[in-house]
Amino acid sequence: MNIFLTWDSSWIWKALFEKLSIDNDVFWVSRNGQIKADLTQNKDIDLLTDKLENTKFDIIILNAGRWYFGNFEDGDLKTYEEIINLNLLANIKLLKKLNYDKKKTKIIFIWSIISKKFMKWASIYQASKFWLRWFAWWLKNEWYKIFFINPKIVDTNFHPKDIDLSKFPQTSIENIVNVVENIVFWKENRFEIDL
Ligand SMILES: NC(=O)c1ccc[n+]([C@@H]2O[C@H](COP(=O)([O-])OP(=O)(O)OC[C@H]3O[C@@H](n4cnc5c(N)ncnc54)[C@H](OP(=O)(O)O)[C@@H]3O)[C@@H](O)[C@H]2O)c1
């Protein structure tokens, strides 16, 4: 199988990547990944999708995301634009431009419980996740094979070092990886999976 995925975290994704790579061709994209692209930039997305034009993907995993945690009035517009570009527009552009079969290819969004529940200090991040959740529902209704995974807080590089994550409800990284594996190997059929 050909698997496209957007991430290069320092965390356990690498373990999943290595596992999937045993029997599949994995195309791992991020600014520092195996294939380098800044997904906030149109020119990078164009170069990437041109390069992969002849590769038909069986699985597309969309995970790259960033956030700003704080009062809306304290964040700057540049940050907000980057969040919208990465969390929302990049995924739409990739789904428009990559080569895949809309009825057969599994598309997995590693999304967030914040796309369903209001959280303080998340303004633009919450809006980006919320918007894409409804886009995913539309894709699902058009017969695309869509999977939407909503973790709670996960202990990754995502969070500033000074935040005490133990105060928040958490999802383990292993739990997410297991669900992704189950989807890839046909053991999971649910559209939206809250973790
Ligand atoms: N951590 C949490 O508490 C939590 C909770 C719920 C949902 N989520 C969601 O889970 C997903 C992954 O988050 P994470 O916790 O793994 O965060 P992370 O450790 O910060 O990873 C974010 C990933 O996005 C990539 N990325 C960032 N900017 C990029 C850009 N401009 N172009 C291409 N790739 C870019 C990064 O790779 P490079 O640096 O190499 O570009 C990295 O692999 C996100 O969608 C996030 O919203 C996270």
Concise structural overview:
The protein contains 5 helices and 7 strands, in the order βαββαβαβαβαβ. By secondary structure, it is α/β, with parallel strands linked by helices.
Work out the count of structural domains: 1
Strand percentage = 15-25%
Q: What percentage of residues falls in helices of 4 or more residues?
A: 25-40%
In quaternary terms, these chains amount to: single chain
* Average pLDDT for all residues: 90
The CATH architecture can be named as 3-Layer(aba) Sandwich
Q: Which small compounds were modeled alongside the protein?
A: NADP nicotinamide-adenine-dinucleotide phosphate
Q: Output the helix-strand order.
A: EHEEHEHEHEHE
Strand order, biggest sheet? Answer: 3-2-1-4-5-6-7
Q: Can you say what the CATH homologous superfamily is?
A: NAD(P)-binding Rossmann-like Domain
In angstroms, what is the radius of gyration? 16 Å
Structural class: alpha/beta
Q: For the record, give the distance between the C-alpha atoms at the N and C termini, rounded to a whole number.
A: 26 Å
β-strand number: 7
CATH class: Alpha Beta
- Here the CATH topology equals Rossmann fold
Low-confidence stretches: none
Q: How many strands, which pairing sense, and closed or not: the largest β-sheet?
A: 7 strands, parallel
Shape: globular
Output the number of helix runs.
Answer: 5
